[in-house]
Each structure stands twice: as structure tokens, then as C-alpha cells.
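Lab manual, section 2.4: Encoding a predicted structure.

Procedure: take the sequence of the chain (484 residues), apply the prediction step described in section 2.3, and record the output as C-alpha cells. A sample record is shown.
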Amino acid sequence: MKSCYQEQSSNHLRVLSDDQCRRLIAAAMEVLERTGVTYLDDEAVDRMKNAGCYVDGRRVRIPFRLVEKALNSVPRKVTLCNSRTGQRVMEMEGGNAYFGTGSDTPNFIDPYTQNRIKASRKTVGMATKCIDALPNLDFVMSLGIVQDVHQLVYDRYQFEAMVLNTSKPIVITAIDEPGYGDIIKMCEIIAGGEEELRSHPFLTLYAEPISPLQHPNDSARKLMLAAKKGLPVVYTPCIMAGGTVPATLAGAMANGLAESLSGLVLNQVTAEGSPFIMGGVFTVMDMQTTIFSYGSPEFDLMMAALADIHHFLDIPMFGTCGCTDAKVVDEQALIEGAMSILLTAQSGANLNHDVGYIEHGNTASLEYLTICDDLIGIARKIVSGINVNADTLALDVIDQVGPGGHFLGEEHTMRHFREETWYPRLFQRQIYENWAAEGFKTLFDKANDKVIDILENYEPEPLPKDVQQKIKDIIAAAESKLNK
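Recorded output:
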């Protein structure tokens, strides 16, 4: 045995040094104590004041000690479960990287016609079915905003469309506190009770501040309800360098981090020890087009740097990848998606969303989602590194085969080739003649075939009929209140 020998290392990325992480965190804390943030909810303001913040109307300045106290009380690990079995399937800590879709795109590319249509209950169900079937996607966001129901209750329908079509963990959005409350009720029915859901959560809420440095009423109330229920919550600034935050990447990150930390403090003063996932969508405003860019190199750079900060703080992180500014699934889409997925896997962000987004978050494509599933497989293979030990060095096998031999018939090969080699589901590796014989299909063609096959032949594990009916009853009760 070799002393102090590390058997396996991984291929990881780091953008910031520890000193840079400290400086950015200190800058964010100075923003909170010097400039402060605005909470637009009365209960939130009262809670922050009672905790020891300096309050002037709705402007709240947060002293360093409260941020440090929140950082000490927040759990270092958040677990999400399978909704059908309760099995713990996502352990968000350290560099564990999980991947899933984004939510609430207004448009959807119909895989049967390739027309760009409005998202609906049907399209969210289609997307969720595909996510459930694809092996490298770990969790579900709606990949569409339901628009064919009353918009004051669309969030309940959106959750129903997801939970009926997947057993994977779900990241939800909610219109407001009552909407989130109704979704929690549905989840408690599925889990078997309030305590069962708390101990084996299969959902987390996604909520946002408004940059710069504002917490809307609904976001604050959802943050507090998550804490009261003991359920995990994602709080994610979506910043645009040069637009809603400073143009410099360091200034943009300090501002965004201040927003995350002020959400964390509210969550923790409501209930210490509540599970909380920090993170963000940190990108630039493209000054030529004014878009919120999902494909810029600054986006990838800031998200990788944000992962460094979260590793430094040892708090689970919500990341972003597998998305593009391209309007269709073309070369630009694949380049931007591949780069962001690989950099995210290497940086070790935990809960990584927006896979399947095209058109800078305005449209969902199931073909792009399916191609990205293969890209995630590639990225995971790369970051797994190379295992170097006596068995994998294979010196006895090399000696046995000798010069001029081959290894195809060796037991060692049969034992190892599957675990050592990544095999694509869509990417082409056959010889030209075989590819031609199969119809000259492009990567997009194969992805479309895969999507259609899933939609027509794959069946997710169903919920019991009585549970399905109770979910419908909660939606119907919410809808009935609109008519009063």
C-alpha cells in the first residue's frame, strides 16, 4: 500500500480563489449593511426588525452578524425524494451535480409539426413525460407556463400536469402564497401527511427577488411559508450585468449575492434550520439586443464563479445550464448548451435547471432537451476522471496478451468496457454506409424520433386514482373562489 496516495481525482473547474470568494461575500454583506434591501411585505419587515435589522420604512439594513448567524444555521445538505417511493434520490451537497429543466416558458415547439405554439397543460404534460423517461435528467420543472386555464390558478394545474407524469423530484413555481399553499396540500396528500412530506420532500419551491435589491410581497411570503413548513426553497436572483446590476462581473455578483443572502436571512429568522438553496441566473444584458442572454460566456463564467462561492460557504446551489439564445436547435444551440453543461458539471453546482430552453428562455424544445440529455452524459463521464489502481492498470492482462495480440476476448475487457466507456443514445458512431442505410438521419432527426417514441410509448408510474381525485378537488376549490 502506498502512503498518502489518492486513488482517483476528478476533473473540476475553479474560477475564484478562496481570497476572492471572501472578498465577494464581504462585499455582499457590506451592501446589506450599508445600502440595504427593500421588503414589500409587512410581516417580512417586522420579522427582520425583530431580528435586529435597521428598518426605515420598507428599507431594511442587515448587520453582518445576522448574515453570519443565518449562514451558520442553514443546513449544509438538502435532500429530495422520489414522489412515489419516498426514496432519497438527490443529495445536494458538495459537488454533487443534478440536472433538470427550467419552467414557465411561454412557447413550445410541437415535436409533431415543429410549429411554435403556446405552452399549455398538454405541453407541460408532454415535457414532463420526456423528462421522466430521460436517464440523465434528475428533476422536473414545468418547461412551459400553462396558459389554457384561468391565470390566477394556473400554478395548480401546472403542478398537476407535472406530478401525474413523473416520480422524479419537482421544482415548482407558484403565483403567490395561496397557490404555494395549495401545492403543498397536494404534496402532503401524495406523501401521506405533513410530517411525511417534511421528512421526505419531493418538491422545492423556486422564488425570486427583483433586482436590484427588492423582495416582492409574494416572494417574501413564499419564503416564510417554506420556512414555517420546513420545506426546501430555492431563492434565485436573475441579474443582468449592465441592466439591473453593475456592468462589472464582480459588482454584478456582489449585488446578486446580497439578494440571495437577504432572502436567506428572512428564511432563517422565520425558522432557523430551514432548508435553503442559494444560487442564481447571473448573466448580462446584451446591449445590442437588450436580451437576458442565456448563451453568453459571461453567463458561464459567473455561474461557475458562483459555484465557487457556494462551495466556500458550503451551502447547496441552484445552477443554470443547457440553455441557449438560439431560436432553433442549430449549431449555436448545441455549442452554447454543451459548454454550459460541461462547465456546470465541472464547477459542481447542485441543482442545475433550464435544460431544454431555447430563444433565451422564451421557448421549450423537447428535441433540444433530449440532445442535452446525451450532453449531460458526456459531461458526467468527463468529470468522473480516470480510476488508476492495480486492476485498471491491467499490467497482468497486458503481459498475458503480449505484443501483437488483442484484448477483445479477455475477461478483463468484458468486466470493464461498459463502466469505462460512455455510449451515446443519439450521437452517431456507426460507419457511413450504415448511417445512410438508416435514412441519413441527423442528430435532430434522431432526437425527434426519440421524443415521439417517448410520447407514444412511455408510461410514467401513475399516482393512485384517489390521490389524483384529491388533487383535482384542491384545484376545483381554488377555482371556485374566483367566482365569488
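Check your result against the sample. The chain has a mean pLDDT of 95.
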